[in-house]
Amino acid sequence: MTTAAPALEAFDRQVEALVQGEPREETAAIRDLVAPLRERARRVAVGAQEDGKLPFLLVLTREVVAIEAGMGRTAVAGRDTPGFVDRTFEEGALERFVATLDLPDPRAYLLLDVERGEEFCGVAPRDALAEISRRGRSPLTIEEGISLIRVAPPMLEKNKCFSLGGSRCGDRRVPALWISNRTPKLGWCWEGNPHTWLGMASAGGRVAAGNGGPP
Questions:
Q1: Domain total in the chain
Q2: Which domain holds residue 150?
Q3: Model-level pTM?
Q4: For residues 215 and 201, what is the distance between their CA atoms, to the nearest angstrom?
Q5: Which of 38, 75, 77, 149 could form a disulfide with 154 if both were Cys (CB 3.0 to 4.6 A apart)?
Q6: pLDDT, tens digit only, all 215 positions of the chain
Q7: Are 79 and 52 contacting, i.e. CB atoms less than 8 angstroms apart?
Q8: Residue 106 falls inside a structural domain
Q9: Has residue 58 been placed in a domain?
Q10: Is residue 211 part of a domain?
Q11: Residue 212 lies in a domain
């Protein structure tokens, strides 16, 4: 039987990663906000780490950490150059890229059974989205992607980057995270254009602290 210790240790590490770099006055508030989710994480089975996968991910939305600020606290594994938002997002564009699905909490929640989706490298984003939906999974949002690489920088690596099809703005653009000049970049690609180095990240579910039943 899987014990709770690995899950709790993983949760605590994720909290530390997400408060790293935040203003001191915000750190305590973030810890208090996510504390109720620790019990939810305890119930998630955590086994051996699989490449490109996480059993759960603690997510902070833009209501807690702005997108630009969150990207500035990312880095490629083994480096310290901060990530950035690509200039091709015109003024006001990020605010229009919103979640296409209902989130369990507007500020913080757990994302379950996370995959960065390198199997979809070379597949057009719209086709990858269709297959993810067929499997009963859902694509990651921008904030989920940022939280992912803040918590686990090795999830973003050369030729294994990923689109974030859970955030859209009503046009054909699909946001994505990839490496540019050895640092994470939040950009976008057209939904019909495949890229050999860009897959589609997805998750099996989302839960908030107040949801009943097991994750």
A1: 1
A2: 5-205
A3: 0.94
A4: 20
A5: 77
A6: 345 788 999 999 999 999 999 988 899 999 999 999 999 999 887 876 788 999 999 999 999 999 999 999 999 999 999 999 999 999 999 999 999 999 999 999 999 999 999 999 999 999 999 999 999 999 999 999 999 999 999 999 999 999 999 999 999 999 999 999 999 999 999 999 999 999 999 999 999 987 644 45
A7: no
A8: yes
A9: yes
A10: no
A11: no
| Cβ(182)–Cβ(145) below 8 Å | no
The pair of structure tokens assigned to 55 is 């059993």
* Tokens read off for 3: 């014990």
3-class SS letters over the chain = CCCCHHHHHHHHHHHHHHHCCCCHHHHHHHHHHHCCHHHHHHCCCCCCCCCCEEEEEEEECCCCCCHHHHHCCCCCCCCCCCCEECCCCCCCHHHHCEECCCCCCCCEEEEEEEECCHHHCCCCHHHHHHHHHHCCCEECCHHHHHHHHHHCHHHCECCEEEECCCEECCCCEEEEEEEECCEEEEEEEECCCCCCCEEECEECEEECCCCCCCC
